[in-house]
């Protein structure tokens, strides 16, 4: 089966780490369509100088799909210390240098993927240098992914969100992979700043709406301050559909496992809480719901376990697609 995963941030990276193990068996081909609207950290600094799409999420996905030696993976994620290069990830600098040399961000991503021997294709949702802009419920307009999340922490809700320049073009390869896909997996990840930006590229949104692929939406395990405060699983799905312009999804994956008391307390101190799995509300919308224990046993953070998430996706396909063939 041909898979397309859409998103960004650590959520998409975790998903890809699991899916890559199925490439060559259950998965014939795997493509990741990745947001490039990030404006913070090393990525933001490089974008201001070189006027390129954001390389950070692309870098993380390349490493997640990498079949290269561990030392190469560590090299791509290495962050410099000291003046001048402080905070820059080697992979960001590498992709930026390749873009400057080849004159093409798409070529740079392809070359970096080849060097790290990825078990799948990484494609930016656009190769144009775009920025995320949001209007809040008080009329305030905020520019920049990082700034949008920070402003949201003041208690204001996003009313409208878009990319500037508006209506950027999508790479032809991204549209081709969506058209060919049997399965499209969306999320997990920051709802407004990692997932939705991909669908603000009109051609991506239209291609997915036209696609006959089985569409799966993965709900986050925890709420995110400034973006999804107080959101239940149903709220995530409803908001995604409203802001992305996607007509429907076929199935939703929801985590049911609660973190340990100690870890939960750490998250509550940061105004984060487990996403309530109100599966009946989702089911009433005519969407199949798969509620499972999906988080790992790491005591430092709550994150989808790549193997658990992949196993759930494979079970969905077995139940919804393969046995009907």
CATH class: Alpha Beta
Number of helices: 14
CATH topology: Rossmann fold
Q: SSE order, as H and E?
A: EHEHHHHHEEEHEHEHHEHEHHEH
Taking all residues together, what is the mean pLDDT?
A: 95
CATH superfamily: CofD-like domains
Largest sheet: 7 strands, parallel
* Share of helix, binned: 40-55%
The first-to-last residue Cα distance is: 13 Å
Question: What percent strand?
Answer: 15-25%
CATH architecture: 3-Layer(aba) Sandwich
Class based on secondary structure composition and strand pairing: alpha/beta
Shape: globular
Q: Indicate how many domains the architecture comprises.
A: 1
Record field, number of beta strands: 10
Q: What low-confidence regions span 5 or more consecutive residues with pLDDT below 50?
A: none
Provide a descriptive summary of the structure in words:
The protein has one domain: Rossmann fold (3-Layer(aba) Sandwich). The strands form 2 sheets. The protein has a 7-stranded parallel sheet with strand order 3-2-1-7-8-9-10, with helices on both faces. It is 43% helix and 16% strand. It is of the alpha/beta class. Helix 1 crosses helix 14 and helix 2 packs parallel to helix 5.
């Amino acid at each position: 089966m041909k898979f397309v995963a859409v998103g960004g941030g650590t959520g998409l990276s975790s998903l890809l780490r699991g899916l890559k193990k199925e490439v060559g068996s259950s998965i014939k081909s795997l493509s990741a369509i990745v947001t490039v609207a990030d404006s913070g950290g090393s990525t933001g600094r490089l974008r201001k100088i070189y006027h390129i799409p954001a390389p950070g999420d692309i870098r993380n996905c390349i490493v997640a799909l990498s079949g290269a030696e561990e030392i190469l993976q560590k090299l791509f994620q290495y962050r410099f210390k000291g003046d001048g290069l402080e905070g820059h990830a080697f992979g960001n600098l590498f992709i930026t240098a390749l873009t400057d040399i080849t004159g093409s961000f798409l070529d740079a991503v392809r070359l970096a993927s080849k060097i790290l021997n990825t078990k799948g294709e990484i494609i930016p949702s656009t190769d144009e240098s775009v920025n995320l802009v949001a209007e809040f419920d008080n009329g305030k307009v905020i520019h920049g992914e990082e700034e949008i999340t920070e402003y949201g922490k003041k208690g204001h809700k996003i009313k409208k969100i878009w990319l500037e320049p508006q209506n950027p073009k999508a790479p032809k390869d991204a549209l081709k992979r969506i058209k060919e896909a049997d399965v499209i997996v969306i999320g997990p990840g920051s709802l407004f700043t990692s997932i939705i930006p991909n669908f603000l590229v009109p051609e991506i949104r239209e291609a997915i709406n036209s696609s006959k692929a089985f569409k799966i939406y993965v709900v986050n395990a925890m709420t995110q301050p400034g973006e999804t405060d107080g959101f239940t699983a149903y709220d995530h799905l409803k908001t995604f559909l409203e802001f992305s312009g996607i007509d429907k999804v076929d199935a939703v994956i929801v985590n049911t496992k609660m973190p340990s008391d100690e870890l939960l307390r750490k998250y509550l101190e940061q105004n984060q809480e487990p996403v309530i799995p109100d599966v009946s509300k989702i089911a009433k919308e005519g969407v199949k719901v798969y509620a499972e224990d999906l988080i790992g046993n790491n005591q430092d953070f709550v994150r989808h376990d790549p193997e658990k998430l992949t196993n759930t996706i494979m079970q969905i396909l077995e139940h919804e697609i393969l046995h009907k063939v």
